[in-house]
Amino acid sequence: MTTRPRHSELDLPLVLTSLLRGVVEQDSSPQVWRHLLGLTSQVRDHVAVLGLDLVLDEVEGYAFLRALPDDQLAELRTGKPALPRLVRRHALTYPVSLLLALLRKRMAEFDASSGDVRLVLSREQIIEMVTVFLAATSNEARTVDQVDVAIARAVELGFLRRVPGEAGRFEVRRILKAFVDGQWLADFDARLRAYAYGPEGPPDDASGTVVGEPEQEDHR
Predict the structure, then answer these.
(1) For burial by CB atoms within 10 Å, which of 29, 40, 132, 139 has the most?
(2) pLDDT tens, 179-219?
């Protein structure tokens, strides 16, 4: 059970700077997490001024900042100059979108069948999982390279984490659930069903967009 600091001990600057740097997780930043839980309302008020919203999941143990929807931001800035976007959106390639969708499905299956909270997959498992859905090619090495690039991108975005001391093993991070929701999966599945997996490759729109980190620093 998380013990929250007394109100007089809460450190708002610590929480805000941590969130502006990237995702705050309960397991990796327990001190910041405790302060965040005691300052949730104040954090929301402060980041709203910057056109941001706090996404907090106490059950899964993560929090991050996301850009306010355009309509809310326009209402907030009525009669004022538009704010520059602090959080950028990342256009995802088809292999990366496919990987994230498959990891999200694997996490749902894992949660339904396992009492553990950490889903760890080997590089070989991920390659096998993804290559089934990639266009058939005689160049197996090129296909594996595509998956390796997608894995590296997922690590960069913070959805996979290399397991320390275990080469070639990756933990699927719980924050993936916040970015790849049911609607995202449904839309991506629809594109896959419309695609005949021919040598032409995936359709032009079989990709996705994910909200990224604050502009000033790559996080996670």
Answers:
(1) 29
(2) 887 777 777 777 666 654 444 445 444 555 554 443 333 43
